[in-house]
Specification:
Blueprint: H1 10-19, H2 26-36, E1 40-44, H3 51-69, E2 78-81, H4 85-98, E3 106-109, H5 116-124, E4 128-131, H6 133-141, E5 152-155, H7 158-163, H8 167-176, E6 182-187, H9 192-201, E7 205-209, H10 232-242, H11 255-267, H12 281-293
Parallel strand pairs: 1-6, 1-7, 2-4, 2-5, 3-4, 5-6
């Protein structure tokens, strides 16, 4: 099965080829035909399964075909709501990559920084808006954003939204969406509260589930080390020096702990940085950029 077999149009195929994509992942193979038919979708899938491409590719295609049939002023026709700034930025980058030969424009809005640049982009006109709930509601209340023309609405990482306390914000956003729309709802888990929320956004829908029994994405190899607290840093440094892979993510229970790990690694000449809620958005994006570029271990 190829993306061409799924009926993807040539400009998107060209972009996918440039990205090095040849064959769709299982969630893409199952979801794309459903979405191209205009049917609502409930997707139960973890990060790392390719779900962003599973919804962004067919949405871009529908937007291109819609624009050809109804040329005119550019309006927000797709809304993607996601829980974190970093995920919003990543989804925006994916939309930009897949739509590079189509003329479809997107922008990303999130809190933690001044809104001027974001509102300037909105004034110029975009087809796709990727947003975190708080900043979205804020700019809606200020009159910068209208959801009246939304044809495609995506709620991504819904269970994480629930965990982070966004449930009331999400309900406010759903209430503002036009009834005549296609809705997509993604969550790694399906607790009762998430099932209830999905009923509020979805009409008649089809469901795609990708290996929900797995606790981690299939590419993750797991291991465990039993070690005393005082020897944790020493073990981490040993593992990093023993297996010098391109890049490593280390999770810490606390913000203070994350900062401490960075200092301990620095003493061992291992370049690292921390990302947590006490860091400014600019500092977090700088650290992520250096990590992507390979400047950080």
């Amino acid at each position: 099965m190829t993306f061409k077999d799924l009926g993807i149009i040539e400009p998107i195929l060209k972009a996918l080829k440039a990205e090095g994509y040849t064959n769709p992942t299982p969630i893409q193979e199952q979801s794309i035909p459903i979405l191209l038919r205009g049917t609502d979708l409930l997707g139960c899938a973890q990060t790392g399964t390719g779900k962003t491409a599973a919804f962004s590719i067919p949405i871009i295609q529908q937007l291109v075909l819609d624009r050809e049939a109804n040329p005119g002023q550019r309006k927000i026709r797709t809304l993607v709501v996601t829980p974190t700034r970093e995920l919003a930025i990543q989804i925006g980058e994916n939309f930009t990559s897949y739509s590079r030969f189509t003329g479809i424009k997107n922008t990303v809005i999130f809190g933690g920084i001044k809104q001027g640049r974001q509102t300037d982009a909105l004034k110029k006109g975009v087809d796709v808006l990727i947003a975190t709930p708080g900043r979205l509601l804020d700019l809606m209340n200020q009159g910068f954003i209208s959801l009246n023309d939304i044809k495609y609405a995506v709620l991504d990482e819904a269970d994480q939204m629930l965990d982070m306390g966004f449930i009331h914000d999400i309900k406010k956003i759903i209430a503002k969406l036009p009834s005549n729309r296609q809705s997509l709802f993604f969550s790694a888990t399906m607790p009762p509260a998430i099932v209830e929320l999905s009923k509020k956004i979805l009409g008649d829908f089809e469901r795609v589930t990708i290996k929900p029994q797995q606790a981690t994405a299939e590419k993750v190899e797991q291991g465990i080390y039993f070690v005393s607290k005082k020897n944790k840093a020493q073990l981490l440094i040993h593992l990093l020096e023993k297996d010098p892979t391109d890049s490593v993510l280390v999770f810490s229970r606390t913000k203070h702990g994350a900062n401490k790990i960075v200092k301990q690694l620095a003493k061992a000449d291992i370049k690292a940085d921390a990302i947590h809620g006490n860091k400014s958005q600019n500092a977090r994006q700088k650290a992520l950029g250096e990590f992507k570029d390979g400047d950080l271990k």
